Amino acid sequence: MKDASPFEITETLHEGRGTLVLRGVRTADDLPVILKVLDPRRSRPRDLERLKREYEIGRQLDLPTIVRPLALETHEGMPALVLEDFGGQSLDHFLGAPLPIERFLDLAVRIAAAVGALHRRGIIHKDLKPQNILVNASTGQLKLADFGLAVCSSRERQAARSPSLIEGSLPYLAPEQTGRMNRAIDSRADLYALGVTFYEMLTGRLPFEAADPLEWVHCHIARIPQPPGTWVPELPEALSALVMKLLAKMADDRYQTARGLAHDLERCLSEWRAKGRLEPFVLAEHDVSGRFEIPQKLYGRGEEIAALLREFERVVGTGSPELVLVSGYSGIGKSALVRELCKPIVRERGFFVSGKFDPYKRDIPYSTIVQVVRELVLEILAESEEQIAPFRERLMGALGINAQLIVDVIPQVELVIGRQPPVAELPPLEAQNRFRIVFRHFIGVFARKEHPLALFLDDLQWADPASLALLEDLVTHAETGHLLVIGAYRDNEVTPLHPLVLTLRNVRNAGARVSEIVLGPLSWVHLAALVSDMLHCRPEEAAPLSDLVHEKTAGNPFFTIQFLTALHDERLIEFDERASAWRWDVAKIRAKGFTDNVVELMVGKLARLPARTQEALKQLACLGSTTDVAVLSAVSGRSEQASHEDLWEAVRVGLVLWMDGAYSFLHDRVQEAAYSLIPEEQRAEVHLRIGRLLLAKLPEEVIAERVFDVANQLNHGVALMTDPREKETLCRLDFQAGRRAKASIAYASAQSYLAQATPLLAADAWRTQYEETFALYMERSECEYLVGNFQRADELFDLIFQNARSNPDRARVYRLRIRLYQVSGRYADGVTVALEALRLFCVTLPESDEEIQAAVEAENRGISASLRGLRIADLLDAPVVSDPDGRVIIGLLVDSIPCAYNARPEMFALHVVKALSFSLRYGNAEETCFAYCAYGIMLASVFGDIPSAYEFSEMSLRLNEKFNDAKLKGRLLFMHGGHIHSWRRPIATSVPIMEQAFLACLEVGDLVFAGLVTVLTVWLVLETGSPLDEVLRVAQKYLAFARESHNDAVFHTIQLERQFVASLQGPTLEPANLDDRACDEAESLALITGATFGCGIAFYHVMKHVAAFIDGRYREALDSAARAATMLGAVMAQPIEATHHFYHALTLTALYPQAPAPQQREFACTLERGLQKLKLWADNCPENYLNRYALVSAEVARIEGRDLDAERLYEDAIRSAHDQGFVHNEGLAHELASRFYRARGFGRIADMYLRDARACYACWGAERKVEQIDQMHPRLLPSRPLSPAATLALRPELLDLLSVTKASQTLSGEIVLDKLLRTLLTVVLEQGGAQRGCLILCLEEGASIEAEASFEGRDVATKLLESQRLSSSLVPVSIVNYALRTKERVILEDAAEAGKYASDPYLARVKPRSLLCLPILQQTEVVGLLYLENNLLAGAFTPDRLVALSLLATQAAISLEKAQLLRKEQAARAAAEAAERRAMFLAEAGAVLSESLDYQETLARLAGLCVQSISDWCVIDIVEGGEIRRIAGAHKDPTKASLLEELQRRYPPCWDSPHGASRVLRTGAPLLVPELSDDVIRGLVVDEEHLKVSLALGARSSMIVPLVAHGQTLGVLSVVSATLERRYVRADLALVEEVAHRAAMAIDNARLYCKARDAIRVRDEFLTVASHELNTPVTSLRLTLQSLDRSIRGSRSGEMQAMAKLVERALRQGTRLARLNKALVDVSQLHGGRLPLEPENVDLATLLRHALDQLKPELSQARCSVHIQDGPQVVGHWDPDRIEQILTNLLSNAIKFGAGKPIEVFWGEEGGLARIVVEDHGIGIDPARQERIFECFERAASENYGGLGLGLYLSRRIAEAHGGTLQVQSQPGVGASFTLELPRVGRPAPRNNEERGAPA
């Protein structure tokens, strides 16, 4: 049955993320309670810590003004804090609107009193806000709640954290809580929070509004809130000022105590109740702090702090690790100094972690480094999953398969990356290398440019050897990146032979940067300042006490503080409440007889603590400098709560610090004093008891994790142990600790633990515990050897050998010795031991050379026999060796191969074939892979069986993968990729294999083979024909690795490879050697030779050989070839072996013609052998070697006189090299072919080949060879013009400029400097915590202020200053000049104390609180400065902000510089651009002037154009009839158009007026006024009103130009600029004069046009009248003739018939005359725009028939038939007479030009268009005239056909008037087709009364 809950819940007060606040009743006693419950699934670990802290602090404080905690229990399985419920509600329930004054004062007095009581008990709340102030509305009771963040005020040390980890509530944070200030938190932070709370109570709103945490931080640091009276005008000024004082940015400017605040509030409340008002009064008169506080600043360390910051900035800037050492006596302030760097680094988003070496944990390897790095991991774990993910990804990428190595040392890493597979066991050296590489990679994840890492390691004098070695490795490898290691140590405790001194010597010798800061005691002046600041008095008042303190402490800061604290504790320094001052009596202090030894002083202080506290401190001292409370509780036998209570007093007095769940001593001197409380004779017993308690109380998994701690405690008391079982347990723990230390390559620590374990073994351990004893002694002997105790190691090896029970166990001893001898270079001893070991298994190897050779051949035959009938690939499936002896034999042989290779080369092959033989006999083992691959190398190089060699090598790789053996993977990849792969596959594919080999070697720490990989990889890249620059890049990369791994032989070999490449490019001093300023060839060779590095020696001689041959020095090449031949065994089966034979053969063919006959025969024999090798290689891999075989064959054919064969073979070599990308061999083949043809007299062909050779060498990058060809054959270089697309080699500065320009374009898109600077300066202001900033640039003419930005409310106002000269109105000029000249930054923490700058006018006037002037350097030159100031906060600009600010300022400077460059470029192009603008303006003006002949409209548009382009306003005056008339005016500002109208109406220009226009009209000369002053304007106006209008229009520059045409002034053009930004010059005047000339011509032309138009009008009127007059008689004539015609037609006589013909002719002519007359009238109407149309619905067919009827006489006379193709009815809304006129004209033309031929007419309708086509078969129309016939007075044929040329002109115009078209298609001699198209409009009309369907 479920237990009843101890609480009855009545209400849920709050539900947050992981936290629940409930109201309820405790069922046991019906007590009302509040429960604060944590949901473990949603809360964080630190939430539980806060809950515990709230309970602990609440229990310690017995105050009625705090919510009392009752218990820490569980509620429904969740942690719950039980609090009293006094019926209160949080203050925020009463807010939202301004509180009444009396209500506010009543609450504020009680709040201040409650906070004061809290502060007097030494507690800072750190999270005061309305939600944590509870008020009972009915009783008036007020209490403070939520002490989860509270701390002891006297010793609170601000932990530097990223802004995301700021503790507190953002709207209520004090500036010093933001992590952005170099100030610690004290009780005044609570007073700032009260200021925010009071502001909210009085105004109903917060003092700031912000959208994100960074904006909140900036508000608290740099923005001033509006006074409360701004929002509540009736608020008394005194209250507003009181709140603003609480909100002061600097803690020193606020109230100093809650008591002083409460005093002023009580005064306000009393006065308000008495008078109902508040008079202003002096605030804080009674506000003096009675706390004895240690000043939170350093004294006398300014230079040292600056030095530290410079080192950090350098690390950030260079990306290279550095070591800074801080030394001095204990207590001198080393740790405090370094902590000053903490906050700046964190504010840079960097990591700062620190750790302290413990003298009692020196045997624990990496104890402090683990502690330090664990902080990093824990900080990551506190982040969100989104923030953790990138770190997880980077960690997995950096650690790879070796991640478990880091997890073993730092288990918390597993929480980030998850469980990891175990790592392979390696020999000691490889294990050590692997661990260091992996740890470097691990640190590199954190030490990045975006977040640099600073490691602070304190008390280095106590560092364990493993930590020192790791430290050395970190700071001497550049790959660790942005890492600053700061080490502090006591120099008086470090002797010349101290391990730290030796480590530092190694670091310096490795070339790492090491800086030292030595701290001395404080001077009397600085100590006096410290004393006076602590006692709040003037230094001279405290001088006697300062003298005494200096005498006692000798200026040691820690001793000084502790001494003064002791005086306060002894009440020899006391605060006088009545006088509000500190009092002391120096005589009494002297009489007290205080010690001058700091440890004695500490012991005395500890002795005054309660007994339980002293006991807890003793245990804490035994456990180390820092201990978890859980461990302390376990060893003390008390609960965690009791342990907290035991140490509370020590925390209160500041001797112990409580932070993040652990206790730590304030200083190691305190720990030393606490440890001294234990009598020396009792210490072993205490440690033993602690060790036993840890064993008894800690779970097994915790013991395993803390094995070092447990073993150390027990080892201290081992002498007291009597129980064998206990000794056995300790032996097991020491063994476990030793193995852990050895796995972490902490060999010295491992040796120590293992050495303590072996004596604990039982006497008969070899018999009763053989396996454990054997393993322990093996581990110990190995560690003894690794730490240099060789004799002791050999003794232990002999001991193990004597007690070993079996040969396999003895073989384990031998194998370990072989590996250790190999590590130490004792190769001969290794071979000897191997031979001894093999004899254990009856394997005896011969030792003479002849016997060895015979044995190799015999074994090889045996191998062949064993493989008969098998494929090599079948060996992959061979069984795994099961015979223990067989496995041991194979392992011994493989382990001995490297020793044999180095000490007994003749035995190398024997060991290889023996290992292979035993593998074929017994089966495969992991080591067999190495034997298979080594045998493959022998097959390729010695036996020439390349296919089998390749199969063996590939099979060994697959077998290694099958065994999943990482130890040998890198070696096998190296042997495959570097020795075998290229004999069967393209050489370029070997490079990726070698890169894999390099990484695989690094993963297992195999630096020996990794070095070999790098040497061969560089050569392989060269062999592929890659550009020489790429080869150099690869060489440079691997040089860095060789340097860092201290592999000198490899380093110098790669350096020689690099120099060989450089010699091909040309930079070496001479072609014959590889020297340059950075490399000495002889020195490098001597070092390689001294190291007996055969591979390097062989490489050197081959490179010398190749270089000499390419340069044409064949005798030298032959000598080098001979030396290289002796070393080929060291490069067996490597590609360079083939290169040697290739160039050796070419050297012989080059020397052959001049050699004497005997030498020629010798050469021929050697060439024959060389060709056989080359043919073998070409047959097996033609991709790599065919080009070489063909080229050597060609050269042999050449010397043998086989010219045709030589020609073919040269081409084969060239083609093969080209196809495979071997550009260097292609060039060589071209060069030798050229030489061949030139020798035969084919010069042109030779030149062609040589040009191709030169091109190949140039492509390869062999500039020296190119220069040699150019010098020997200059004619091959014809000068050619440079192609626009040619590749150029430009100075880097030009490319940099391009990069800058592109970057700036990306930033702005356009050159919008205001937007750019607004963004940049806003970021600068927020990043730097500034209120105002200026950007100053150094220009050619001096420094100028380019931009200014400042905060105005929440926004940033940015202003561009147009290169304003330095001015005291904007910046302190003296500071700017100092920074410019010295190139040093200037930081004034309080500009009120400006020192040497005090006289600066700007500082005297503005009085900024703090300022920064930061030079922006480019290549050591100052290019600009960033000036920032903060008027609210002293110390706002800490040096740590400078890196980011420098980058931001530099970006701003670059962007501005780009704008200036563009501005200069624009200025340089100004003339051309101005000319282009003038041309465009003239073109536009010309277009305007030519668009219309109405010059009034045209000039009005011209005035508008002038306003758009060249002026702000413009007027044009014209002379007409002797009078001046203004006909146009325009203004850019439409609102001022009325002013122009007023100017024209009231003050028109007259001939005798002072107007500038009148003056120009009188003189005819233009007038230019570059600058119109008010006086000048006054001289051009009539009266004051005229002046007023002119000034309102705006006039600062003007031009007035006459309009002259044909020598006559027609008017004047006036243009005016309203601003001096557009000041007119001569070039502008020339432009306006040209416009004026064109305008004058336009006016003249318009006037001429008007005259011509009037003449045409008169003509048209005449034509109209004439037509009318003609029409009258013609009409009469026609009527008469028509009547006569009718009469005649009625008669029958022949005479009458003849008369009828005459009459018919007269009628026809009369009709024609009428049509002509009508045409004249129509033309007149068209010209006048008066052609009338009278549309109606008409049928097109009807119109056509009517027209045909009218033309019947003409048709008859011309004998033209008309064929009509009927279509559907087409009805349209047209003028019938006009359409019939068109049809008549078309039919008349068809009759006229096609007489005697048929005419076709057809019509139709489509898409709403009516169409009628008239086709004739007449003379046709020339295509060139087809469009012209529609023009007025144009005729289709000018001769014999007559006509006025008006018919088609009128017809088209009529068609267009109807919205239609008239087109023609015609071919001369064929006929013409006219198409009329008209839109149909209107309703269809029935035709012949016949109903038809409506047209579509």
TrEMBL record:
<dbReference type="InterPro" id="IPR004358">
    <property type="entry name" value="Sig_transdc_His_kin-like_C"/>
</dbReference>
<dbReference type="InterPro" id="IPR053159">
    <property type="entry name" value="Hybrid_Histidine_Kinase"/>
</dbReference>
<dbReference type="InterPro" id="IPR003661">
    <property type="entry name" value="HisK_dim/P_dom"/>
</dbReference>
<protein>
    <recommendedName>
        <fullName>histidine kinase</fullName>
        <ecNumber>2.7.13.3</ecNumber>
    </recommendedName>
</protein>
<dbReference type="Pfam" id="PF13191">
    <property type="entry name" value="AAA_16"/>
</dbReference>
<dbReference type="Pfam" id="PF00512">
    <property type="entry name" value="HisKA"/>
</dbReference>
<dbReference type="Pfam" id="PF00069">
    <property type="entry name" value="Pkinase"/>
</dbReference>
<dbReference type="InterPro" id="IPR011009">
    <property type="entry name" value="Kinase-like_dom_sf"/>
</dbReference>
<keyword id="KW-0597">Phosphoprotein</keyword>
<feature type="domain" description="Protein kinase">
    <location>
        <begin position="7"/>
        <end position="266"/>
    </location>
</feature>
<dbReference type="InterPro" id="IPR000719">
    <property type="entry name" value="Prot_kinase_dom"/>
</dbReference>
<dbReference type="Pfam" id="PF02518">
    <property type="entry name" value="HATPase_c"/>
</dbReference>
<dbReference type="InterPro" id="IPR003018">
    <property type="entry name" value="GAF"/>
</dbReference>
<dbReference type="InterPro" id="IPR036890">
    <property type="entry name" value="HATPase_C_sf"/>
</dbReference>
<dbReference type="Pfam" id="PF01590">
    <property type="entry name" value="GAF"/>
</dbReference>
<dbReference type="InterPro" id="IPR008271">
    <property type="entry name" value="Ser/Thr_kinase_AS"/>
</dbReference>
<dbReference type="InterPro" id="IPR027417">
    <property type="entry name" value="P-loop_NTPase"/>
</dbReference>
<dbReference type="InterPro" id="IPR036097">
    <property type="entry name" value="HisK_dim/P_sf"/>
</dbReference>
<dbReference type="InterPro" id="IPR003594">
    <property type="entry name" value="HATPase_dom"/>
</dbReference>
<dbReference type="InterPro" id="IPR005467">
    <property type="entry name" value="His_kinase_dom"/>
</dbReference>
<dbReference type="InterPro" id="IPR029016">
    <property type="entry name" value="GAF-like_dom_sf"/>
</dbReference>
<feature type="domain" description="Histidine kinase">
    <location>
        <begin position="1665"/>
        <end position="1882"/>
    </location>
</feature>
<dbReference type="InterPro" id="IPR041664">
    <property type="entry name" value="AAA_16"/>
</dbReference>
